[in-house]
Amino acid sequence: MIQDISPSKFNNSYKVCQPDSSSRFFIFSEDKLLADTSLENGDIIFPGNNDIPSADNAVYLFSIDDISYFLISDHKCSENGNFRFVPFKELRQLKISRNNSLFAAFTAYHLWCWYRSSRFCGKCGHTTVHSSRERAMVCPECGNTIYPRINPAVIIGVLNGDRILITRYRTGYAHNALVAGFTEIGESLEETVAREVMEEAGLRVKNIRYYKSQPWGSASDLLMGFFCDVDGSDEIHMDKSELKYAEWISRDEIVLQPQDISLTNEMMKLFRSGKI
Ligand SMILES: [Zn+2]
């Protein structure tokens, strides 16, 4: 999965620090990221000190091994050399040999989205400032503290004996998926699972069991994967406003996603191999 970067180590402990000669910078322009994607092995290179006019306003985000990554929000950077603003969706399509750079890009995008939407206090409207103690934005006027926002969502493998419910979204991602959805305020994860399967496929479920989780920065999500069994009738009533496809598929008929980075793909693969 995208976060599986072992033996490399991701360190997201917050600290205030300055870039060094090995640091890399994330520079976004709307939903595009300044990066070099011309390498034959598909790896993604982010600009360093020599590739940008100034790192004065760089904010430390995280480290992977000895490389520290920074965000420059207000920038005057333009495309130069092999560095171009790459649409974020295009990054996901790259055939990369290791996940480090893609995971870094997804995580930086999550943080950038949060920093961008936290520039003003939601209580009083005053401009916020960076906390010096932790990853938070603070309102100097009323003291309101805004922490990074993470959206909980579930991925659901609905099983029907030797078949699994495969879906495709009406818009957005074009490949096979599982039932998925955001947790609403006031419900448990298990309740989210039952509600989403009922809403998207008109099915009742039982034996809901947790599988694994995944940070998914491109949507500011924390995804939690569950398997469950259909309970009673297996007749699918698809939500046509959200899905264009929902069918029971046997193990050997499952077509996986082109990139093996998502929790959804791992769950489909697990079922296909007979391990669940
Ligand atoms: Zn305020």
Describe the structure.
The chain has 276 residues and is α+β, with helices and mostly antiparallel strands. It folds into three domains: 105 residues, Alpha-Beta Complex (Nucleoside Triphosphate Pyrophosphohydrolase); 32 residues; 122 residues, Nucleoside Triphosphate Pyrophosphohydrolase. The chain is built from four helices and 16 strands. The strands form four sheets. Strands 11, 12, 13, 14, 15 and 16 form a six-stranded mixed beta sheet that branches. The mean pLDDT is 94. The structure holds zinc ion (ZN). The site of zinc ion has 8 residues, from loops.
List the helices and strands and how they pair.
Blueprint: E1 10-11, E2 24-26, E3 28-29, E4 32-35, E5 59-64, E6 67-71, E7 84-87, H1 88-93, H2 100-116, E8 129-130, E9 137-138, E10 145-146, E11 151-160, E12 163-169, E13 179-182, H3 189-201, E14 205-216, E15 221-230, E16 243-250, H4 263-272
Parallel strand pairs: 2-6, 11-15
Antiparallel strand pairs: 1-5, 3-4, 4-7, 5-6, 8-9, 9-10, 11-12, 11-13, 12-16, 14-15
